[in-house]
Write a structure and sequence with these properties.
Distance between the termini: 20 Å
Number of helices: 16
Oligomer: single chain
Helix content: 25-40%
């Protein structure tokens, strides 16, 4: 997370996310292929303008051997689109983001996060994911949707797929949806079922043209569906569909359809070993430079602070904020510049939670306090939402040198006390404490004689669900047996 910049909404040419845009079954196939548009000078200009903003919102671009490998694969699949025959016309970026995401924008800009890349198991899957996104651009879907889209003013970009629309359609209503939305592009540029269908078909078509096994689209979707279910299990959710996907079809619904469209007897290269070699060493999960979630604890070793979520809540670290979610409330932690004192800071945060056509949200009062030696203050506002009365709390801290951090918390009226332990837990940490925070890394290992799923899973850098994580990470089933010489992925410190 880039905590040293203030939050802002990205309106970047209608970013097209692989997960959030809402995949649809391939069964209802269109009889007419979409028209493919070449990269125009205007698209190149717009893409070049949006590119730096997207890098800032999604953790920045990785460099080095892994990034170079992903770029090569991305350009190889992108030229199959007909947008351009020159690989040099495409910019393919491996993003330093701990969420499963991929997208593309007009102008030849294609993106995939390291987390989604780590979930894949061969090069054809990587090409399929990127091909799906390029397909949206080739069919000019964002331009079509922009003609009717209305620009929304969103309350802070969370930079995390899991944080997007985190309140869904539950009792906290539309106010919560606005506060915890990922960005205006995800609300104003939803694609139609036919557009999603076209992108799926185009991605599979590109795989065939490039000589890849087109069935890879199906296998990567299956991995995504299993990852979704595992995340729900770890959160204790009764649903296998995470909250960010509650209004979009689950990837599981696409597996069979993608296989049908690809053809069950299809063949082509997968380049599994080359792929595993190419991604070995990727940071997995949170990058300590952006802060790390470990259970209910969040630690930022570089900026030297830590806090704990309430019992029963889970956290997701985004590029611009941390979201804290539970059945009795939702919250967001972020930072900003402190120029006029905490009272003005809190008032400005409340003001930022108000859409231009709505009554301005203001705190009923602002109270001063001290938290672990930090000067702090908080304000509360009771707001009428579509689902009833809710309490909105902004709790801010002066970290000195013009830097402040704050929580925005939302709970049903009278229920905000659940966040008090969290508000009181924020503290500075020592350099030694920060130095103890280590990144998790994706490591490719060769199975040896006697190795089993359980013995290798025991080497994973997790204390919970290690076996389940290992199986999903490697696309293996519960009854899988390993063969000496086989390569598998582990997550280690």
């Amino acid at each position: 997370m880039n905590w040293k910049r203030t939050l802002r909404t990205t309106a970047a040419l209608g970013t097209l996310t692989f997960l959030v845009t809402g995949p649809v079954p391939l069964g209802a196939q269109s009889s007419r292929a979409p028209k493919v548009y070449a990269i125009s000078a205007a698209d190149k200009s717009q893409g070049a303008q949006a590119h730096p903003e997207l890098l800032a919102e999604f953790g920045g671009a990785l460099t080095g051997s892994q990034a170079n490998y992903v770029s090569q694969v991305g350009k190889r699949i992108a030229v199959q689109s007909g947008l351009s025959n020159a690989a040099g016309d495409f910019t393919v970026t491996l993003l330093n983001s701990p969420v499963n995401n991929a997208f593309a924008i007009p102008g030849g800009y294609v993106y995939v996060t390291r987390q989604l890349t780590a979930l894949m198991n061969n090069e054809a899957e990587l090409a399929g994911v990127l091909g799906h996104e390029v397909g949206h651009v080739a069919a000019r879907h964002s331009a079509q949707r922009q003609k009717t889209a209305q620009r929304n003013q969103i309350l802070g970009v969370l930079g995390s797929v899991l944080a997007g629309a985190v309140l869904g359609d539950n009792a906290f209503g539309q106010l919560g949806q606005r506060i915890f939305s990922q960005g205006s592009q995800l609300l104003t540029l939803k694609f139609s079922r036919s557009q999603e269908l076209q992108a799926d078909q185009l991605g599979i078509t590109y795989l065939k043209r490039a000589g890849y096994d087109p069935r890879a689209m199906s296998s990567v979707l299956e991995s995504l569906a299993r990852q979704n279910a595992l995340e729900a299990q770890l959160r204790g959710s009764t649903s296998q569909t995470p909250e960010w996907a509650s209004t979009h079809p689950d990837p599981a619904s696409r597996v069979r359809s993608a296989m049908t469209y690809a053809g069950s007897s299809a063949t082509g290269m997968t380049n599994r070993d080359g792929f595993l070699s190419g991604i070995d060493g990727l940071v997995y999960g949170d990058d300590p430079k952006q802060g790390v979630v470990d259970g209910r604890r969040f630690t930022h070793p570089t900026l030297r602070f830590a806090f704990e979520a309430p019992d029963g809540f889970f956290m997701v670290n985004g590029t611009s904020a941390v979201t804290i979610s539970g059945s009795s409330g939702k919250a967001q932690f972020a930072g900003g510049k402190l120029t006029g004192g905490l009272d003005a800071y809190i008032t400005n945060v409340f003001a930022g939670l108000t859409e231009s056509n709505q009554t301005r949200i203001t705190p009923s009062s602002i109270e001063r306090t001290t938290v672990n030696g930090l000067t702090a203050a908080y304000g509360i506002s009771r707001v009428q939402s579509s689902s009833g009365t809710v309490d909105l709390v902004v709790f801010a801290y002066d970290f000195g040198n013009g830097q402040a951090y704050h929580f925005v918390a939302l709970a049903q009226a009278g229920g905000a006390e659940v966040f008090t332990p969290m508000f009181r837990s924020l503290r500075r940490i020592t350099a030694a404490e920060g130095g103890n925070v280590k990144p998790r890394l994706l490591r490719v290992v060769t199975v040896k004689q006697g190795d089993t799923v359980r013995s290798l899973a025991a080497r994973m850098a997790y204390t919970d669900a290690a076996t389940e994580r290992f199986l999903v990470l490697n696309g293996l089933q519960a009854n899988a047996t390993l063969t000496p010489g086989q390569k598998v992925k582990l997550v280690t410190y």
